[in-house]
Amino acid sequence: MHEGLLPQGLDTPGHDFLVALAPADGRRVGFAWLFHEERAGFVYDVVVEETERGRGLGRALMEHAADHLARAGIEVVGLNVFGHNHVARRLYDSLGYRVVDQSVTLPLEGLIPR
Fold it and tell me: What is the secondary structure of 44-60 as a DSSP string?
């Protein structure tokens, strides 16, 4: 699935992976996948293990991602988030992300009698 985006695996230029470690024991509990080129960056994915959520690790990853990209000369970073993901939306809002595009859908099942 990721071969097209990462033809050289984790060494593919323009892609960086940040790892979140549990403060108590140093085990890996999450990661952020970042892409950047020119002056723009994009967050492809942010994952925190379900058992570790609610402890500020997602916020710490996102703050570290912004710092990492800024140090690399990136001027703006974007991401996509589903509207139903209220926890992520609140986090991104609190970090200063702004909505620049929205999509809407209409489920068609059951609208037309068969």
Answer: EEEEE-GGGTTSSHHHH
Q: Which CATH class is domain 9-94?
A: alpha beta
Tell me the two tokens of residue 40: 């723009």
DSSP string covering 48-98: E-GGGTTSSHHHHHHHHHHHHHHHTT--EEEE---TT-HHHHHHHHHTT--
Evaluated on CA atoms 36, 19, 44, 86, the torsion sign reads negative
Q: What is the pTM of this model?
A: 0.86
pLDDT, tens digit, 9 for 90 and up, residues 64-77:
999 999 999 999 99
